[in-house]
């Protein structure tokens, strides 16, 4: 096995183990710790910490420790969050959530930087186009990574499935499910009762072990890597303050200012699925025991489409995939506005989560590859910006989740999606226009030569 592929697989399986634990914990926070809003507050502070971290930490940590050890250090923050859940209180969950948020941005920036450098290095060796190899590596990564949702939710579903059977959901509750849910029915029902403490400890033990394995896998088997481009240029790295401000300085690029809506929408749509679809549609109409299984469908389609898009983008280009993602999400949003969920329509719950996975795979694979290709010389700052704006999307979405009706949230999603696609189309137009200039210049040179010969 070639070295570059081995390293991609090590990163991928490390993230698989880590997010098997974190993904399962995230989707259960509001259900397990609903007292006084502890779970929602933990998620809000988590993404608030990630937002602050995205502004400064990623370029500094990557420059100081390199991509490999930045990933290892950041993963340890996730382990701390798992441990904090064993004794969940305001004094354990909130601080460990902030710590996880601070580690999340460097983790993802280091991962994006590592795969981009690895893809460009391998493309140079094999004589291939760097963009195509980077796309393929991100597709492979997200194929493995997105399956973490399958395993994390399967584990929670199997563990919590040992609870006693629950009664049917009353028709009165079904009337307030779906887009009409305005959080009026907040009382605990049989469908949302807390599992026993023994089962919770069992689940947390499995998740913590998975997180520790992720840290060990990356620390032992991942090879450090240096940016060959900077090495050729003899660049020892910019000064400290320049590195600190590089995230904001990159916003001077018009393309990045236009592209900030893409990661923001990614945060909005993921927050809607994890917070609103699971609660106002699945839990409300089917019960909490079905949340894991519905999310497994999302993760499975997301994982399969991720590797498919990595290969498909080489033939269709990224614009076609963005169009597919936008149209699919548009149809889902409109349908969710009109649909009245009911237990008799069990298959429909899985169809929506599957289609959501088809679209989310576009945002995850193509957004990362797009940032890596367009801002190749400023990869660390570019991926830090990506996590900054995605975190802002999460913070805003979780911020209004407790006081807006679901139909209003869907209209917000629709508006942000439309603006994001308009801005993305503008960037593609600017890139096409820039690529056309050298070609026009090359065509002009032979014409000038012919005029010279005629004059002679």
TrEMBL record:
<feature type="transmembrane region" description="Helical">
    <location>
        <begin position="384"/>
        <end position="404"/>
    </location>
</feature>
<feature type="transmembrane region" description="Helical">
    <location>
        <begin position="345"/>
        <end position="363"/>
    </location>
</feature>
<feature type="transmembrane region" description="Helical">
    <location>
        <begin position="321"/>
        <end position="339"/>
    </location>
</feature>
<dbReference type="Pfam" id="PF05978">
    <property type="entry name" value="UNC-93"/>
</dbReference>
<dbReference type="InterPro" id="IPR051951">
    <property type="entry name" value="UNC-93_regulatory"/>
</dbReference>
<dbReference type="GO" id="GO:0016020">
    <property type="term" value="C:membrane"/>
</dbReference>
<feature type="transmembrane region" description="Helical">
    <location>
        <begin position="69"/>
        <end position="90"/>
    </location>
</feature>
<keyword id="KW-0325">Glycoprotein</keyword>
<dbReference type="InterPro" id="IPR036259">
    <property type="entry name" value="MFS_trans_sf"/>
</dbReference>
<feature type="transmembrane region" description="Helical">
    <location>
        <begin position="286"/>
        <end position="309"/>
    </location>
</feature>
<comment type="similarity">
    <text>Belongs to the unc-93 family.</text>
</comment>
<dbReference type="InterPro" id="IPR010291">
    <property type="entry name" value="Ion_channel_UNC-93"/>
</dbReference>
<protein>
    <recommendedName>
        <fullName>Protein unc-93 homolog A</fullName>
    </recommendedName>
</protein>
<keyword id="KW-0472">Membrane</keyword>
<keyword id="KW-1133">Transmembrane helix</keyword>
<feature type="transmembrane region" description="Helical">
    <location>
        <begin position="137"/>
        <end position="160"/>
    </location>
</feature>
<feature type="transmembrane region" description="Helical">
    <location>
        <begin position="199"/>
        <end position="222"/>
    </location>
</feature>
<feature type="transmembrane region" description="Helical">
    <location>
        <begin position="39"/>
        <end position="57"/>
    </location>
</feature>
<keyword id="KW-0812">Transmembrane</keyword>
<feature type="transmembrane region" description="Helical">
    <location>
        <begin position="96"/>
        <end position="117"/>
    </location>
</feature>
């Amino acid at each position: 096995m070639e070295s570059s592929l081995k390293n991609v697989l090590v990163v991928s399986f490390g993230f698989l183990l880590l997010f098997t634990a974190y993904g399962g914990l995230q989707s259960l926070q509001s259900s397990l710790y609903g007292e006084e809003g502890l779970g929602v507050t933990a998620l809000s502070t988590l993404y608030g910490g990630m937002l602050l971290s995205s502004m400064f930490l990623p370029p500094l940590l990557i420059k100081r420790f390199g991509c490999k050890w930045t990933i290892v250090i950041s993963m340890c923050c996730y382990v701390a969050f798992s441990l904090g859940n064993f004794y969940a209180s305001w004094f354990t969950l909130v601080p460990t959530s902030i710590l996880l948020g601070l580690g999340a941005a460097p983790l993802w920036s280091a991962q994006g930087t590592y795969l981009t450098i690895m893809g460009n290095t391998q493309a140079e060796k094999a004589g291939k186009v760097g963009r195509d190899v980077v796309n393929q590596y991100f597709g492979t990564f997200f194929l493995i990574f997105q399956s973490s949702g399958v395993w994390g939710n399967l584990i929670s579903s199997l563990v919590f499935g040992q609870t006693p059977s629950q009664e049917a959901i009353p028709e009165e509750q079904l009337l307030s499910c779906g887009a009409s849910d305005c959080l009026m029915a907040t009382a605990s029902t049989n469908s949302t009762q807390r599992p026993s403490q023994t089962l919770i400890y069992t689940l947390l033990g499995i998740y913590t072990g998975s997180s520790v394995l992720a840290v060990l896998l990356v620390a032992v088997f991942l090879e450090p890597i240096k940016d060959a481009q900077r090495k050729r240029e003899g660049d020892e790295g910019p000064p400290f303050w320049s590195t600190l401000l590089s995230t904001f300085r990159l916003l001077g690029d018009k393309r990045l200012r236009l592209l900030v809506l893409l990661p923001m929408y990614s945060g909005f749509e993921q927050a809607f699925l994890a917070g609103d679809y699971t609660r106002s549609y699945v839990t409300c109409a089917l019960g909490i025991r079905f949340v894991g299984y519905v999310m497994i469908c999302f993760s499975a389609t997301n994982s399969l489409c991720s590797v498919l898009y990595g290969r498909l983008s080489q033939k269709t280009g990224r614009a076609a995939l963005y169009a597919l993602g936008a149209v699919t999400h548009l149809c889902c949003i409109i349908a969710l506005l009109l649909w009245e969920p009911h237990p008799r329509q069990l298959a429909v719950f899985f169809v929506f989560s599957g289609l959501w996975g088809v679209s989310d795979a576009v945002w995850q694979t193509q957004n990362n590859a797009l940032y890596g290709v367009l801002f190749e010389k400023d990869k660390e700052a570019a991926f830090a910006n990506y996590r900054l704006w995605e975190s802002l999307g999460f913070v805003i979405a979780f911020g209004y989740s407790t006081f807006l009706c679901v139909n209003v949230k869907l209209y917000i999603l629709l508006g942000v999606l439309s603006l994001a696609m308009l801005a993305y189309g503008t960037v593609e137009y600017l890139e096409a226009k820039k690529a056309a200039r050298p070609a026009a210049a090359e065509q002009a040179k032979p014409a000038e030569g012919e005029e010279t010969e005629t004059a002679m």
